[in-house]
Amino acid sequence: MTTTQNSLLISSHDVAVVRFDPIIKHHSLHATIGFRQGEVIVAFHAGCTQSFPSYLTVQTGIHEHITLKPDFLQYVNHSCDPNVFFDTTNMQFRSLKNISPGEELCFFYPSTEWDMAQPFTCKCNTPSCLKEIKGAAFLPEEILLKHQLTDFIRRQLKITHPNAI
Are 133 and 78 in contact (CB under 8 A)? Predict the structure, then answer.
């Protein structure tokens, strides 16, 4: 999702800034420095762990969902053509592509979420936009396998599609 030039700086961190676009009422996280593909942007850890999903959690197990620390990571939005990934095994937030300063950081929600607490209609407008985002459980394996997936999602996919991975 793109923010307008009228976006407001909400907070600044070593690797990124949180911006708010008052026109579309949208928070987003943007790189302050460039990153190369595969580079670790920042390590993260669980703020708290709960047995149910929320719009602020990342799924790490069938009944395990974590809030992210550092807190600014909660502003990473979805894209069907992501440039970042939450590696929940190594607890690293990594770049999937080269990222330029100022670029919005977006991840593919089904890469971490099996069945989302709040499904939504995607408006990323990328050529690969899936329109409805509900979680990995609702996507065909050929779509999922085009994306970097957490080990948890890979295990779930193996259970539901034994020949997939």
Answer: yes
Q: Each residue of 123-146: pLDDT tens digit?
A: 999 999 999 999 999 999 999 999
Token pair belonging to 66: 């974590």
What is the DSSP-derived secondary structure letter of residue 35? B
Q: H helices within the chain, ranges in order?
A: 141-144, 151-160
Determine phi and psi for 158, rounding to 5 degrees.
-65, -35
Q: Distance (Å, rounded) from C-alpha 42 to C-alpha 21?
A: 24
Give the span between the Cα atoms of 85 and 41, in whole angstroms.
10
Q: What is the phi/psi pair of residue 100, to 5°?
A: -95, 155
Report phi then psi at 28, rounded to 5.
-155, 160
Q: The whole model's pTM is what?
A: 0.90
Distance CA 84, CA 26 (A): 19
